[in-house]
Amino acid sequence: MIELDWLLPLFDYAGIAVFAITGALAALRKRLDIVGVVVLAAMTALGGGIVRDTMIGTLPPAAATNIGYVIIPVVAAVIVYFWHPQVSRMLGVITVLDAAGLGLFCTTGAQKALLHGISPLHATVLGVVTAIGGGIIRDMLSNQVPEVLSDRQLYAVPAILGAAIVAIAWALDVRNGWIIFGATLLAFTLRMIALRRSWQIPATPEFTT
Amino acid sequence: MIELDWLLPLFDYAGIAVFAITGALAALRKRLDIVGVVVLAAMTALGGGIVRDTMIGTLPPAAATNIGYVIIPVVAAVIVYFWHPQVSRMLGVITVLDAAGLGLFCTTGAQKALLHGISPLHATVLGVVTAIGGGIIRDMLSNQVPEVLSDRQLYAVPAILGAAIVAIAWALDVRNGWIIFGATLLAFTLRMIALRRSWQIPATPEFTT
Amino acid sequence: MIELDWLLPLFDYAGIAVFAITGALAALRKRLDIVGVVVLAAMTALGGGIVRDTMIGTLPPAAATNIGYVIIPVVAAVIVYFWHPQVSRMLGVITVLDAAGLGLFCTTGAQKALLHGISPLHATVLGVVTAIGGGIIRDMLSNQVPEVLSDRQLYAVPAILGAAIVAIAWALDVRNGWIIFGATLLAFTLRMIALRRSWQIPATPEFTT
């Protein structure tokens, strides 16, 4: 697992930068002030990982010890704040990168849980939490129902797939960096196909009481 | 305390199933998608216990190590999603079971805190957090003011009573399973009487500034 | 650092009492019931510190072991609930005390993080979290966008200043109680000047996508 020890931080940094950008854009859309832009950038990027690390019991979480985890979201927030016309013209690219971040976070999140002795089933859940937790906190801070819980997009499903593959491979004693890459690629690809074809999960049945 | 070691998990499973059902029903009422139904079921069922375990410092929390804590909320969410007409016809039963879950969670939550060296005063608070925390998180995820903080029902009060009895008995060195049963029954009964007689806590005084 | 060991708890108690009062007032404004008034008082007062202690990894957090941290918010909530006309006539005083609480929490929060081996950069962040975290949780529980993220007031900025001074002094090996006092006073003074002169951070640029 030597390659992984070296790659995991790079995976994390890349995902954190992209998620921070989407958080900052969401804050601007909500007309928050610069404090709100920085906080939403940071929480979107780090929120899922903080919850994961708390649930694993590895405190302080990476977000409270890693210098990059503070610098990257703040830089991303400042860039989006001052150059948002340019940034928002790249929304197509950002959507692709967000799908990549989703793929990265679900697999590296599950991997970190497994490395700390969490069961494959719970590691799958914590991988998904890593991937979608930041977005949920972002929407809660924006005072809206979290998109991932209500917009019928295939967003959590690719994360479940990616995290589950890593966890199942681990359970079968297949524990190398290629599994992470493969599962990340698969989750990313499924997310991209769902975006392109506008796939939706079924509408919730009518309900009244 | 041998009986308790054996009974505590059963208490927890029962409460988790009921709380998951009420969370899933709340998600359907809010027209969340299946992801939202599963997440609200899980967070309503597990949220209070996760906060309690974090506050006690027993990480990973039970929710991240116990297989049943993942299976039960997912199964409950799927059942509610597909059979909600049948489930919602049993709302009377669910209300009774939710009152039982309230009683169970406040006492077992306080007990777990006491077993880990938390003071009786704080154990009372953590028992209440176990009982009402999941519902608060459910309502925050649904983008509404938590019912337990605003609807004037006697919901937190029975939880305070149940948790306080367990904590006071512990302080008096009365530490057996019957205390848990008795306090659970008392909290449950008070909740049921309050429901039947539509008891309310006083309206908040008018306030303007 | 002998003086600090003795003074830190007093600092904390003072800040907690003031923040609890502002939380209880916010709950009354939202027409929450007495349960909501107590919960908002407690979470406004303790929420930032609980998040800080979790991020530092010092669990149970102070809020789960210190008797005063339970008593003070409950007493503050009850006082506000029953004597809110008198309390709200002192809103000028409360605003000053809230500024003092902001100054206290950002410096003592950063200090606690530093004492537990957190880096100066992260300690600055955790100092700010201690100061503004409770207010954010209060607003999330009230189902509104957190004021500190959107109202363009100089509220987070003085906290950043105060926490950063403590962290930088620590990095320069200047570690005595006077730094805490000085930084607290500076953060408080900046907050008060900003209030008096109605200073605002710049409006967020128009944004549409």
UniProtKB/TrEMBL annotation, chains A, B, C:
TM ranges: 6-27, 34-51, 63-83, 90-110, 122-141, 153-172, 178-195
Protein localization: Cell membrane
Keywords noted in UniProt: Cell membrane, Membrane, Transmembrane, Transmembrane helix
InterPro entries noted in UniProt: Gly_transporter
Keyword Transcription regulation among UniProt keywords: no
UniProt lineage: Bacteria, Bacillati, Actinomycetota, Actinomycetes, Streptosporangiales
Organism: Actinocorallia longicatena
Protein name per UniProt: Trimeric intracellular cation channel family protein
Record-annotated Glycine transporter domain positions: 10-84, 96-170
Recorded topology in the membrane: Multi-pass membrane protein
Highest rank taxon of the organism: Bacteria
